[in-house]
């Protein structure tokens, strides 16, 4: 299977994430655009209204490198699985999960972070939820064999070996746990009365052609 067909077989939201990250990597590698126009800079966002930075900071994984290939691998094989299985025929719910997660990560970076790109933290968020929703699965990454809930921790450790930031991974895992608790645990408690904090807006479901 070639690269084009591999990407073409991904579910829609994951496919857009992969294509956008690859496009940004190519444009930056060719010096068509600069990474300095993509990173998270609150001064430029607030005072010069460079609002695109709120999005591009999640989509840029760096120039072509081992770390870029690794993050793309995780998107292709784990995040696509999350959308395709746990969110089967619910792309609007998956997209809303990413939007809510991105919002929480932006709040954390505003108050606590020196983070310029939050793409790695977003991957940790997705792998955390994937692991929780596939808790009985056994995983193997390189020489490591472990249960699925430990996946984001293993991936974070591998990323650290490649020069990633501890803070980014901890933020992604914390936000992933927050989403998982309020989406999968809290609604089952008697006191919740079935209330969901991260309920997907009906308009987004209509746009994504998702039925209830």
TrEMBL record:
Belongs to the derlin family. GO terms for cellular component: endoplasmic reticulum membrane. It comes from Symbiodinium natans. It is found in: Endoplasmic reticulum membrane. InterPro entries: DER1, Rhomboid-like_sf. It is a multi-pass membrane protein. May be involved in the degradation of misfolded endoplasmic reticulum (ER) luminal proteins. Gene3D superfamilies: Rhomboid-like. Keywords: Endoplasmic reticulum, Membrane, Transmembrane, Transmembrane helix. SUPFAM superfamilies: Rhomboid-like (SSF144091). This is Derlin. It comes from the Eukaryota.
């Amino acid at each position: 299977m070639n690269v084009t067909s591999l990407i073409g077989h991904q579910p829609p939201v994951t496919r857009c994430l992969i294509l956008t990250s690859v496009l940004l990597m190519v444009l930056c590698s060719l010096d068509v655009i600069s990474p300095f126009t993509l990173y998270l800079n609150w001064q430029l966002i607030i005072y010069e209204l460079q609002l695109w930075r709120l999005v591009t900071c999640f989509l840029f994984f760096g120039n072509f490198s081992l770390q870029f290939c690794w993050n793309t691998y995780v998107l292709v094989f784990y995040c696509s699985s999350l959308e395709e299985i746990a969110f089967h025929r619910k792309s609007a719910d998956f997209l809303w999960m990413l939007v809510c997660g991105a919002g929480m990560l932006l709040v954390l970076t505003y108050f606590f972070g020196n983070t310029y790109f939050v793409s790695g933290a977003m991957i940790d968020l997705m792998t955390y939820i994937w692991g929780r929703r596939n808790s009985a699965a056994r995983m193997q990454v390189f020489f490591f064999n472990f249960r699925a809930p430990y996946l984001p921790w293993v991936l974070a450790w591998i990323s650290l070996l490649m020069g990633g930031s501890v803070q980014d991974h901890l933020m992604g895992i914390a936000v992933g746990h927050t989403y998982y608790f309020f989406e999968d645990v809290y609604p089952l408690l008697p006191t919740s009365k079935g209330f969901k904090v991260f309920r997907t807006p009906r308009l987004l479901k209509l746009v994504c052609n998702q039925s209830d």
